[in-house]
Amino acid sequence: MQKLLNYINGELVNPVTGNFFENINPAEGKPYSLVPDSGAADVALATEAATRAFAAWSTTPAKNRSVILLKIAALIERDLDQLALAESTDQGKPVALAKALDIPRAAANIRFYATAILHESAHTHFTDNDAINYTQHTPVGVVGCISPWNLPLYLFTWKIAPALAAGCTVVAKPSEITPMTAYLFSRLCVEAGLPAGVLNIVHGYGAKAGQAIVEHAEIKAISFTGGTATGKIIAATAGPMFKKLSLELGGKNPNIIFADCDFEKAVSTSIQSSFANQGEICLCGSRIFVERSLYQKFIEAFTTQTKALVVGDPLNEKTNLGAIASEAHLNKVLSYIELAKKEGGTIIQGGKQVKLSGRCATGYFIEPTVITGLSHTCRTNQEEIFGPVVTIMPFDTEEEALVYANSTPYGLAATIWTENLKRAHRVAAEVKSGIIWVNCWLFRDLRTPFGGMKQSGVGREGGFEALRFFTDEKNVCVKL
Ligand code: TXE
What we know:
By secondary structure, this protein is α/β, with parallel strands linked by helices. It is 39% helix and 23% strand.
């Protein structure tokens, strides 16, 4: 079985203990490769390498850092098919989605920051004729980047690219559930000639390798994307050490549909925002609120289109929903469908595990599921399920829609469907979410800030904010 390796000090190496654990292909429910079971000793070696590399990398001219990052982006594009296949095999998502979204976006992340550093500027403030103040940004040092399993290479590069571009050196850990593309990425970094120690990738479990990264005294900043519960643990560890922290956490996003919307567009995009990537995107709209006069018509069109979705082998180009990322997650999602029934919900579409035949006979598949008849306060509508499960509720007034939308502890994203321009702006201003889409979903301009409110996170990623996160900022005041 293929053994993945850590990437430390420019070399692909075994974990210190020599221990590995199995990496499961979720479409088959079977192991297909072995992952380094790294711990504090591996993180210590990675951090030493990153510390040694920092002086040279942080003073490498921006244009030279840019050249090497662009080379890595080009290698990702060269290996698009191989990386998409690996992402699909590792995560369970349709290979077509990996090819269209995950891998191109990984390359785009790197290109964006490789060129952003060429166009950075600093603020200057003239204090009458008495002084000049200027703001200086310097790379913060060795940083930790910890990423989840839903969009593996996409989110891994979303953190690593700004850190490297800013001049930091990095100790990174992909999710233990989806380590394959991070491993392939490390091989591309070797091929591109990234200097030794600039990026180090340590594979392993969160509580062991991840926790060791957060605890390491020489790691000055942590950028984390994952569950809110894990975010709390990381904040509790990193807070007293005064590390810089960026936490991108869970969501329970409202999708608000007014009767004056472009109906066809609202339905077809809501199918995407509900079920893309098996609903395993923190930005999915898992709570759909529909104005009562449109409710019945929406339910009929939405369930018809849901029924037409193909749950199948991720390697089949016609598949809409592939496998759930892990057996534990499959069981979690199924338990929420049971909870919804106990809470009085009606499953109007789906609701069951899917048993496929052939190579996928023992894989982890779930029908896209639509639930009605629940209150906005029940657990099903309050907790993040992170699977192909949506609830639909009617509302009577704009005020009521806002109460429902803002009723969870999360505040990551929201979608609003209306052709009324004034209402669109009014509602967008009132919804407590870090990103609001009006008449679209998942449309991203990489220059815009990204992040959550409430328990969906702290800090902003994307744009120049991410570059700033990885720097120390000072004001220099020169008296004239
Ligand atoms: O993620 P974890 P899990 C949500 C979703 C899901 C839930 C739990 O609801 O069901 O979170 O998923 C590393 N110190 N999201 O448990 O644990 C871990 O190894 C340092 C939302 O799989 O948060 C992995 O690399 N690191 C989400 C990363 O954290 C630790 C995406 C994320 O894993 C650690 C995924 C520790 N103590 C799940 N413990 C989103 N917002 O996109 C774990 N890790």
